[in-house]
Design goal:
- This protein is an alpha+beta fold.
- 62% of the residues lie in helices and 11% in strands.
- It contains ten helices and eight strands.
- The protein is elongated.
């Protein structure tokens, strides 16, 4: 009679557990280490396995007492744009490209210089060696200046300036492409962390649920209502769920470190990803809209625009190099005073002169032709690179649309899968309670329920990331 009452009491408690875990896995503390170690057999106490500390004595991967920083996707993107060194470096390179344009344009502006000379020499002597000159050396002191102004080089400097401007635009587009690369990396790290956190919650709930089943099976085994096989299977399921929890904890810690690296913060910073309630992406575009999306991407992708500017810059540079065959005409002037000079040699104490100079390269060892040909070859290479990137963008857009469509459809299928496995788990628990099935059937139902919960989590965050990847493929990724 006592055994019958005990069996009835255990059956009632198991029924209550089935009702609470049918719809979803409950959140409960981890089972004690006794429930795990009671069914773990150590073959050799002196082996390596015997040296491993029990679960309750091991240091957790994520200490619950460690403070974490809650962060949303929008805040993560803004912090990455502010701190990431890749973005800072690309902006500095763009500013440096602007200075190159100023350097080249300086050739069209007047060149003014000043000089002060004081000399003590043997009056009337000549320079004996080192140069072909007929000047004499005199003891004197003077100061003066010179001015040089380019009149025309028939467009050579003008095309060089145009080349540098196009290169500056290319660098600006490269900086924008770097920003979008960092934004995509931030989104990937954020959603990876968010997904890992959700999977950790599933793992903890699974451990709690299977711990309850193991405890119940142990009590039924002691009452001779279940066999040792049921207890061993329940203990194995509990160990499997604990392994799943360890993997989930590692995934959370790794994802937090990856996010910290993108945000340029210390690697040991622990972040807690928080989903923005307003972050509800619209349904994915239809497959028929791939052509329109590709057209938008071809016009907006900054990396493609950078290659096109580079090709145009190489074309201008080839023209500028070819114009070196033409003459260069410039004007120059010089003047100054000589307050100290030998008597009788310098009647006035000032000097001035001016003139026009024409320089024509007659033979440069084929240097100019080689430079022009080099620029033309670089132009063709840049055009081919732009064509290759254009084809890659068309492929990426098509794949991004397909991935978004698939991820969106997986959400509904995963939710349906979760509901079906919840019903199957409830039935399996009832059958196990009534003694109509073995622990194997219940274990299989629990496994499918866990897989369904994982699939539902993955489906949602895969779609959120697929939408951001589609925006990146279009060149429209922004905070």
């Amino acid at each position: 009679m006592r055994n019958w009452l005990l069996s009835l009491l255990l059956t009632a408690s198991f029924s209550a557990f089935a009702q609470t875990s049918a719809a979803h896995l409950p959140a409960a503390p981890l089972p004690s280490s006794a429930s795990l170690t009671s069914v773990t057999a150590v073959a050799n106490p002196g082996s390596f396995q015997s040296q491993i500390a029990p679960p309750n004595q091991q240091q957790p991967l994520i200490d619950a007492a460690t403070s974490t920083i809650s962060i949303t996707r929008t805040n993560a993107e803004r912090l990455a744009l502010k701190n990431n060194p890749r973005i800072t470096a690309s902006h500095l390179l763009a500013l440096a490209a602007g200075q190159v344009t100023r350097e080249t344009r300086s050739g069209e502006l007047p060149q003014i210089s000043a000089a002060i000379t004081a000399e003590k020499a043997e009056d009337g002597s000549r320079i004996g060696a080192g140069a072909l000159t007929d000047s004499r050396l005199y003891t004197h002191a003077g100061t003066g200046g010179s001015l040089s102004q380019l009149i025309t080089d028939f467009g050579h400097t003008r095309d060089l300036v145009a080349t540098n401007k196009l290169q500056q635009k290319a660098q600006d587009q490269t900086a924008l492409a770097t920003e979008q690369d960092v934004l995509l990396a931030t989104d990937q790290a954020f959603y990876r962390l968010l997904n890992a956190q959700s999977l950790l919650d599933v793992a903890k709930a699974t451990v709690a649920a299977r711990g309850d089943v193991q405890s119940l099976t142990s009590a039924l085994t002691k009452s001779a209502l279940k066999s040792d096989l049921d207890l061993n299977v329940a203990a194995a399921d509990l160990s499997q769920s604990q392994l799943m929890q360890l993997d989930a904890e590692n995934a959370v810690a790794s994802a937090s470190a990856a996010l910290a690296a993108v945000l340029a913060t210390p690697a040991d910073t622990l972040y807690h990803a928080v989903e923005d309630p307003a972050d509800s992406p619209p349904p994915p575009p239809s497959l028929d809209s791939s052509a329109a999306i590709n057209g938008s991407a071809q016009a907006q992708r900054p990396d493609l625009q950078a290659l096109r500017f580079t090709a145009a810059a190489d074309q201008k540079f080839a023209t500028a190099q070819q114009l070196q065959h033409l003459p260069t005409i410039s004007a120059s002037a010089i003047g100054g005073i000589t307050p100290v000079s030998p008597d009788g040699d310098f009647v006035p104490n000032w000097y001035a002169a001016g003139g026009v100079n024409l320089s024509l390269p007659l033979f440069t060892g084929f240097r100019i032709d080689a430079q022009a040909q080099e620029a033309r070859l670089r132009q063709k290479a840049a055009e081919k690179q732009a064509q290759d990137l254009s084809d890659t963008i068309a492929r990426d857009v098509r794949i991004a649309v397909l991935n978004a469509q698939t991820a969106f459809r997986r959400i509904a299928v995963a939710d349906q899968f979760r509901q079906q496995t919840a019903q199957a788990l409830a039935l399996a628990q009832t059958r196990y309670k009534l003694g109509l099935s073995s622990i194997v059937e219940l274990s299989q139902a629990q496994l499918q329920s866990t897989q369904a919960a994982v699939a539902a989590v993955n489906a949602r965050y895969d779609y959120l990331l697929a939408r951001r990847s589609l925006d990146y493929a279009q060149g429209q990724l922004a905070p």
